Amino acid sequence: MNPQTWALFLCAVFLLSGTPGPNMLHVMTRSLRFGLGASLFAMAGCLSAVVLVL
To answer: Does residue 7 lie within any of the structural domains?
Structure first.
């Protein structure tokens, strides 16, 4: 892979990783509405869904 393609790939990865997705918005909403306990369950659910997909 040439350096220009590698640099473009790295920029895309950092940009996509930095934007909040649906999981992040779900956990933030649960934590604001219901507190820490509910957000921990939401985080566990999102993590297990990602692990199952991989």
So the answer is: no
Check: pTM over 0.85? Answer yes or no: no
CA distance 15 to 25: 17
Tell me the CA end-to-end span of the chain in Å, nearest whole number.
25
Residue-range definition of the domain harbouring residue 26 = 20-54
Residue 2 lies in a domain: no
pLDDT single digits (tens) 1-54: 799 999 999 888 888 777 788 888 898 999 999 999 889 999 999 889 888 886
- How many domains in the chain? 1
